[in-house]
Amino acid sequence: MKPLPSLTAVRYFEVSARLQSFTAAAAELHVTQGAVSRMIQTLEEQLEARLFERNGRWISLTPAGKVYHEQITAGLNQIAEASHALRTGADMPALTLSVNAGFSLWLVHNISDFRARHPDIQIDIMLHELGEIDNDPRIQAHIRYGSPPWPGYDSTSLLDRAEMVVVCSPHMKHLDQVREPADLLKQPLLSFAGTRHDPWQDFFGHNGLQMPDLGKSPRFLQMLMMREAAISGLGFTVVPLFLFQRDIREGRLVRALPHTCQTHQGYHFIHRKDEDLNPRVKTFKKWLLARLRATIDAL
């Protein structure tokens, strides 16, 4: 990079040239006229060029000064715009999240709160159902269901053990015959295959029952698909309450039993170790933990 003149002197010159007066420039800059005059003299010495013609109390730009003023004005405007963008977050790369489809059921209904609190941070959301971490360089953070560690990544537990409940369509056939966990053994069950550990194992084990053979049961790699199957009356399924509370409240699904269980895995916020100081990642993680806690407390 070529040597730069004093940027303070350049700013003093721009104001003086725009106002055609050292006195007016001093007033805008909140300094004395002598300070402006000395700074302009310093700049002329650094540039080895005369920028102003001085005629008593009046000044005017030299031909060289006019050319220089046009060029540095464009540069100062770029600096001002870049500084504003950095302060406000405008034109900054979006915070890109990779989220499993199940968690998106909660996130899409809560992200407006984050946007209201942090309008300067743009959020891009990509869906990824399985527990592995995709190494897409565009992604700054991941939300996954599973168990740590994820080598090379830092993880923060969002929910150590989600409360699981059995749900089905309010029009599910034989719903009135299901009064105890054992009654489910005779009913069509929907199985979530998006993790290594089937949630039905937790539910039946917690209630002292043997895990039934689900070899012929519909299996779903995406929780969104399993949700649609349950709503359509295809069977009973066991799901995290905090993800499906909205569907239950609005009548698309009902709890088939009051019984609950805890999962052996949980949701985690995961990011590369070099993203630890990323202010957007830190801000989103702080909001996410607080918002989830409020959701759980309200159940």
UniProtKB/TrEMBL annotation:
InterPro entries named among the record's database cross-references: LysR-type_TF_proteobact-type (IPR058163), LysR_HTH_N (IPR000847), LysR_subst-bd (IPR005119), WH-like_DNA-bd_sf (IPR036388), WH_DNA-bd_sf (IPR036390)
Keyword Iron listed: no
Gene3D superfamilies: Periplasmic binding protein-like II (3.40.190.10), Winged helix-like DNA-binding domain superfamily/Winged helix DNA-binding domain (1.10.10.10)
Keyword Transcription: yes
GO biological process annotation, one example: DNA-templated transcription
Domain HTH lysR-type: 5-62
Gene Ontology molecular function: DNA-binding transcription factor activity; sequence-specific DNA binding
Annotated transmembrane regions: none
PANTHER family, per the entry: HTH-TYPE TRANSCRIPTIONAL REGULATOR, HTH-TYPE TRANSCRIPTIONAL REGULATOR TRPI
Name under which the protein is recorded: LysR family transcriptional regulator, glycine cleavage system transcriptional activator
Organism: Paraburkholderia lycopersici
